[in-house]
Structure of EAL domain-containing protein:
Amino acid sequence: MVFLLCSVVTWYNTINNIHSAFFNQPWYNQILLGIDILVISSCLYCLVKNFLQKHHSLQWSIRKAIKREQFYPVYQPVFNEKLTNYSGAEVLLRWRSNHNKIIMPDLFIEEAETTGLIIPITLQIIKIAFKETKSILKADPQFHLSFNICALHFTDPVFFDKFYGLLVDYSINPNQILLEITERDLLDENNEVYIKKMQELREKGFSLAIDDYGTGHASINYLQYFPFNYLKIDKLFIHAIGTKAITESLNDAIIDLAKKINLIIIAEGVETKEQINYLLKNGIQLLQGWYFSKALPIDQLKNLLHGEKK
């Protein structure tokens, strides 16, 4: 028994010495570090692979949708409180998938802009919108359509030539077209490119609006260099009306500054009577939002406008 106990103790000490000698070696820590790096690299590889697969799949789907003409416009009316009627509509983008599912722009617009596919999509939407609203624009010379454009439209070599061509094809008056440009695009380094093209557009009779104002970093002094004649207050600020939030107090400042440089103000995202009362009190006549109407397909827009005239 004593011999057996001594043998066990000797065996344990030997194993313990081997364990200490092995695991205390510097190269052992290097092995562990290498394993960690391999694990992290493998996870990172999977993430990158999934991202690229998703990116490629979305881009492929967008290209296919363009060929199949699955992108189409809907129209959100703009209400003119002073005239007590609808004086225009913003053209918004939708995508109807193969399974008849409506895909909202938030899910694909970034990819479309990054890949440049936003150009053919925009031209496709403009063409359909001109075709669908030609009779509305002709019947009411004061009615306008507004389209959203981004930085890429200004630098694309063919977009505006094709856009002008569509105006001619459908006999659309430039005076009835409002182009909305998001504030973040103004902060691009190619300011001269924007200003030159904007001046050209204004000379042709188009109106220009800075969209989502207040969500970026463009100062009112910065805006003076751009030939805008409209400013759209972002719904973030409209929804803050009556909440006593910090963003609510910014509305007065934005409205006051816009008036100082003679910009016509459009309020978007209007949903409550309280918001309307505040906006009218501050002299804002052009109102857009679910309080008046959601975005509509062309047949419902025509019914709305027709019912308005009865």
User: Anything to note?
Assistant: The first strand starts at residue 71 and ends at 80. Strands lie at 71-80, 85-96, 102-103, 144-149, 177-182, 207-213, 230-233, 264-268, 286-288. The chain has two domains: 2-50, 70-308. Residues 15 and 21 are 10 Å apart (CA to CA).
